[in-house]
Amino acid sequence: MYSSAHSGSNESNLIAFPMAATSKTALLVQVDPFQSEVWSTALASQSITVIKEGADVDLSNMLGQMASAGLTLPDLIIVDMATEGMNPFAFCRFCREQHPSVKVLLTNSTQTQIAESEQRWAMSQGAQDLLPAFQTDSLLTDLLTALGRTSGVLGLPNLDQQALIQILPKLLEPKAEATETVALPAPSVAEPSVPPAPKAQRTYRGRPY
């Protein structure tokens, strides 16, 4: 399995799931942690091998390095349009011209709806589709739409809807927030002041002085 060799990016993180019966691999780049978790879990539920990359990855350079090294390129790249410093449409055109076997699926983690004109433009630039962000209140519907589209792009057979239903509780369970315990200083007890000892009276021949 490919291990990221580019500089300045996080190391590739291969999701550990059972061996993929489909022999399909998806490279995932998502800015939002929740979107990344939903995508990786959902793809793995369909026996698709998932490789996660950090949002600072240079995808064009990475694909070039993999091709030069004779490594198998991913079948699909799912990339967030909100990825900083990246022109998603230029990347789609790059893949279409330089690596036509690699399909690109664009997502937008900042939008819950995609205008039809935006979708058409993305597809005209080489993207397979442009999908909105997953929402917790419609997660199953969103998953069925997104994974149905993904399966179609990869040429996979029927979508395993039951597997998607089974992962919902895990994805929707509230995340425990880490609470930081602040150690308060122990209250200080002021010790009673001790009055100074009286000076000894000095006398000379019975008279004080």
Automatic annotation (TrEMBL):
- Please give the InterPro entries that the UniProt record associates with this protein: CheY-like_superfamily, Sig_transdc_resp-reg_receiver
Is Phosphoprotein included in the keywords of this UniProt record? Answer: yes
Report if keyword Ubl conjugation is assigned.
Answer: no
Could you tell me which residue ranges the Response regulatory domain spans?
A: 25-148
Q: What's a GO biological-process term for it?
A: phosphorelay signal transduction system
Residues annotated with 4-aspartylphosphate modification: 80
Q: Which UniProt keywords apply?
A: Phosphoprotein
Q: List all membrane-crossing ranges.
A: none
Ranges of Low complexity compositional bias? 183-192
Q: Which Gene3D superfamilies match?
A: 3.40.50.2300
Residue ranges of the region described as Disordered: 183-209
Q: What is this protein called?
A: Response regulator receiver domain protein (CheY-like)
Q: Give the organism the record lists.
A: Synechococcus elongatus (strain ATCC 33912 / PCC 7942 / FACHB-805) (Anacystis nidulans R2)
